[in-house]
Design a protein that fits this description.
470 residues, alpha/beta, Rossmann fold, 2 domains, seven-stranded mixed sheet, five-stranded mixed sheet, 16 helices, 12 strands
């Protein structure tokens, strides 16, 4: 387990940004503090009949807006400090992308691979029961989501358990997001965080002045990228970066890393891993048994999309990437962050960059509360109006559109189109807000500090509007 206190790292970044604001200390202390932490222990009867004591947590960092929002992770290294830190980041993340939630986070301390599906279901349902018992879950109170080690299956178990315990709750499906589509999930949620990472990197790379400082040309096309982590976030970030024109030169997983300066085919690597249980020994690539060393390889864009504290004071002097895009939560420690900034690197902060997941979770929550699928009311009408306009153009010009172009233009927006459009707008708008704050401070603050200033300002105003502070 890392000796670096994660919550302390978050608060160091908070304090750095708070120095650029004029809010009273009492208000800043209230924003920083974690409002509630629930440590749960319960017995799990395993398939062999033995009993194991399970440790789990749920933290609610800020109640300035309700419900609070944040994922549940299954990790052998889960602890209270980590959960509090991640809950705090969720508060600031939601504020940055204008999602009206406070921050929360949950964790169960297990090595998921050591448990059967039946055991995982039992402990997930028991965890949900414990949350219900103390009012730490509900559509208007606290809305979990997937995180490291969890996915749609676990969210379906949580929703089903909550619904069974609270049968009179009309909006019970909104108690958790990241559910399967058939259980009230939203299309586009699976790819959302990775897609958001791509949108954020794209915005940074389109910043002409920023690219000039780095000695790079604007745009993603032609830039080299290394991605750490082939989970949900890393895989889709790599996929969209590759589709956007970047050359994927390195991939890092827990079993090791592979590198090819000419580029790697992501889908072929994934297929190789399915067949061999490892990314190592991929044809044409150099294999590296020590995965951390691959973070130090030369590239334009490094995307740490695995776990926190990956770039620290110990290895930061060997990091050669010009852009560090934080796909994971807290992959760069505060000391390493300062070193990279002094070296002239661009750091795209986690609390902005990986906000795609919570943004689309917000859309799912709204869908569950409205009890209607996005696009259902307007898709056909929009399509009909588009066809009429195209047909009018054909009549006026005497020429016909090719059928594939006609169909493409006439297409009415369905749920996934609307979700992806809303995500793209959110990431563009949030990046522009951070950039505007940097300009207001004469370029003296980096993107992370600008993101924290933005979050502090929005949360502080919420508290003042509640009348808690003058």
């Amino acid at each position: 387990m890392s000796t670096i206190k994660f919550f302390e790292q978050v608060n160091r970044n908070f304090d750095k940004a708070a120095a650029f604001t004029k809010y009273p200390k009492g208000l800043l202390d209230q924003i920083k503090i974690c409002n509630s932490v629930y440590h749960i222990t319960f017995p799990l009867k395993k398939d062999d009949g033995s009993i194991e004591t399970i440790h789990a947590w749920r933290a609610e960092h800020s109640h300035h807006k309700l419900p609070v929002k944040g994922g549940i992770r299954y990790s052998p290294n889960a602890n209270e400090d980590e959960v509090m830190a991640l809950a705090a980041l969720m508060t600031y993340k939601c504020a940055i992308v204008d999602v009206p939630f406070g921050g929360g986070k949950g964790a169960i301390r297990i090595e998921k691979r050591n448990y059967s599906e039946a055991e995982l279901e039992r402990l997930t349902r028991r965890y949900t029961y414990e949350l219900v018992k103390k009012n730490f879950i509900g559509p208007g109170v606290d809305v979990p989501a997937p995180d490291y080690g969890t996915g749609p299956r676990e969210m379906a178990w949580i929703a089903d358990t909550f619904n069974a315990i609270t049968p009179a709750e009309l909006n019970s499906s909104a108690c958790v997001t990241g559910k399967p589509i058939t259980q009230g999930g939203v299309r586009g949620r699976t790819e959302a965080t990775g897609r958001g990472v791509y949108f954020g990197i794209r915005e940074a790379c389109n910043d002409v002045e920023e690219m000039r400082k780095l000695g790079l040309t604007p745009g993603i096309d032609g830039k080299t990228a290394i991605v750490q982590g082939l989970g949900n976030v890393g895989y889709y970030a790599a996929k969209f970066l590759q589709a956007g024109g970047a050359t994927l030169v390195g991939l890092i997983e827990y079993e090791g890393a592979i590198y090819n300066p000419k580029g790697l085919d992501l889908d072929k690597v994934v297929q190789h891993r399915k067949e061999t249980k490892s990314i190592l020994n991929f044809p044409g690539a150099t294999s590296m048994a020590k995965n951390a060393e691959a973070l130090e390889l030369e590239c334009d864009i490094l995307v740490p999309a695995a776990l926190e504290n990956q770039i620290t004071a110990e290895n930061v002097s060997r990091i050669r990437a010009k852009i560090v895009a934080e796909g994971a939560n807290g992959p760069v420690t505060a000391d390493a962050n300062e070193f990279l900034l002094q070296r002239g690197a661009l750091i795209i902060p986690d609390m902005y960059l990986n906000a795609g997941g919570v943004t689309v979770s917000y859309f799912e929550w709204l869908k569950n509360l409205s009890h209607v699928r996005f696009g259902r009311m307007g898709k056909r009408f929009e399509e009909s109006m588009n066809k009429r306009m195209l047909q009018a153009v054909e009549e006026l010009t005497g020429k016909k559109f090719p059928q594939n172009i006609f169909d493409q233009i006439a297409h009415g927006a369905d749920e996934e189109d609307l979700v992806n459009s809303g995500l793209e707008e959110t990431m563009i708008s949030a990046y522009n807000q951070m950039n505007e704050i940097r300009k207001q401070h004469g370029g003296k603050v980096d993107l992370r500090t600008a993101a924290f200033i933005n979050a502090i300002d929005k949360v502080a105003r919420s508290y003042m509007e509640l009348g808690i502070f003058p």
